[in-house]
Amino acid sequence: MMKNGFPRGRSAVVAAATHGMGEAPGMSSMDLAAAASVKALDQIGLRPADVDGVFVALPDDFMSGLGLAEYLGISPRVTDNNRTGGSAFMTHAMLAALALDAGECDVALIAYGSNQRSAAGSLIKSMRESPYESRYRLPRPVGAYALAASRYCHEYGLKREQLGEVALAARAWAQRNPDAFARDSLTMDAYLSARMIADPLSVRDCCLVTDGAAALVMVRADRARDLARKPVYLLGAAAATEHREITGMPDLTRTAARLSGPRALAQAGVRASDIDVVQLYDAFTINTLLFLEDLGFCGKGEAGGFVEGGRIGPGGSLPVNTNGGGLSCVHPGMYGLFAMVEAVEQLMGRADGRQVEDAQLALAHGNGGEFSSQATVIFGTEETL
Q1: Which residue ranges does the record assign to the Thiolase C-terminal domain (predicted)?
Q2: Is 100 helix (H, G, I), strand (E, B) or coil?
């Protein structure tokens, strides 16, 4: 059995920033990632030249780690261009923590940017077509997630109104976030009457298509207190994958989050019930339900009932996707880093208008491909060390 050697609490996030949320005409993915990076570094009085670890996965540049380093004038000792989709950023944080603890770098920058909305379809394809699935002309990615949703409905009797609870909660949080792209009201009637895209998922079950960028800066814990007023410590991080194509998923109602989540929580020394605020990659409403179950917040088949009555929205007992998530805040191709930024903002006490009171522990979970790659990180304040 592999020994758990994760360096709990020995690295910390000291800065977090976003840029170009929603629409950023005239900016490339590299421009956006660089702008968010400089914003984050400015918060703590560092320059790009101070960075020696670069972790980035741009949607249109296979060598984006080298590209961003050159763009910003960084000469990194460590680079990582993980290509596992929206979970890549959680694994960036995991690898950055390991590199920092080993002394391979001193300042780690995690960055992402995409102009998916303003590029109007001109971005290169990020996934090859499957020779086994393409003949069936499944609309990607929504069709893949609809298959999972359909199977879940069949096995557990999920109601569309319960999927709607996820969409409404995300919109309610977004209305408290001035940076969110979709802030207009959303009612259950409007949700239920929305145009169907791939049964049972309607347009209201699908994430936004936006521009946007985000960045985090990580350092070792002993330096963190000199740079940030309230550092946020990485307590646990784990990743898992069981398939690539949706037809290779062993069970359409169970994701590999059931593997990554317990490992990350065990590293952190906490339980799901200890978490104060949760950030989940909600490319589609079904994601939120499956992840709540697989990460241990409720039992299998119970998520539909669990989210009823506004439980995951403002004022609910489990704040989920407090920025509005990919459904209502931002989704520029990949959302994972924005989930981590929101987790950090909450623990730093900087989530104006949507701040969760006395938040000490946060979980952020990323999803890549078609439920293909899962990664979970646990953040905590100094009080949790």
Answers
A1: 238-381
A2: helix
Kindly state the tokens that stand for 140. Answer: 């990607």
Please report the pLDDT score of residue 3 as a whole number: 58
Tell me the residue type at 151.
Answer: R
Indicate which CATH number applies to the domain containing 277: 3.40.47.10
pLDDT surpassing 50 at residue 1: no
* Over residues 192-197, mean pLDDT: 98
Instruction: Name the burial class of residue 356, with classes exposed (0-12), middle (13-18) and buried (19+) by CB atoms within 10 angstroms of its CB.
Output: middle
Element containing residue 11 per DSSP (H, E)? strand 11-22
Q: Which two structure tokens, joined as six digits, stand for 98?
A: 């390991």
pTM, full prediction: 0.96
Q: What is the distance in angstroms between the CA of the first residue and the CA of the last residue of the chain?
A: 26
Q: How far is CA 297 from the centre of its chain?
A: 17
Mind listing the pLDDT tens digit for each residue in 156-177?
999 999 999 999 999 999 999 9
Please count the structural domains in the chain.
2
Which has the closest alpha carbon to 361: 297, 226, 265? 265
Instruction: Determine, yes or no, domain membership for 130.
Output: no
Q: Is residue 195 part of a domain?
A: no
Tell me the per-residue pLDDT of 264-281, one tens digit each, with 9 for 90 and over: 999 999 999 999 999 999
Residue range 337-383, pLDDT digits in tens: 999 999 999 999 999 999 999 999 999 999 999 999 999 999 999 99
User: For 284, which DSSP code?
Assistant: B
DSSP 316: S
Can you point out the beta strands (E) in 57-150? 78-80, 107-114
Give the integer Cα–Cα distance in Å for 292 and 282. Answer: 11
Residues 149, 45, single domain; the answer is: no
Average pLDDT, the chain: 95
| Lookup: tokens for 53 | 């670890």
User: Tokens 């989050």 — which residue?
Assistant: 257
- Check the CA dihedral 154-157-161-164 and report its sign: negative
Query: 83: domain range?
Result: 11-122+210-233
